[in-house]
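Exam revision sheet. Question 4 asks you to relate a sequence to its structure. Input first:
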Amino acid sequence: MVKEWTLERDGEVIDKLPAWILKVKLKDINAEIRCKLSWKMKQKHISVIPWDRVKVEVNQYDMTQGRVVYRYNNYSAHLEADELSE
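Answer key, structure tokens:
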């Protein structure tokens, strides 16, 4: 559920920093921001590695920080790329 003062953006993880911090490049505005994993993702042990596509909640007043709330399934994209290369 999105709160009123947050914006949802899609992005791609560029780098993994210490203390559960990720550097994410947003797709729609071509900006790099620092993000933390949401508590639910930590609780469920969902790992995020560089080059994963993620959904980020960004505060509309401070667009330099965000929170990763969802990791997209990249497995199907890899299967399609393998089928095309054959």
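Marking note for examiners. The chain has two helices and five strands.
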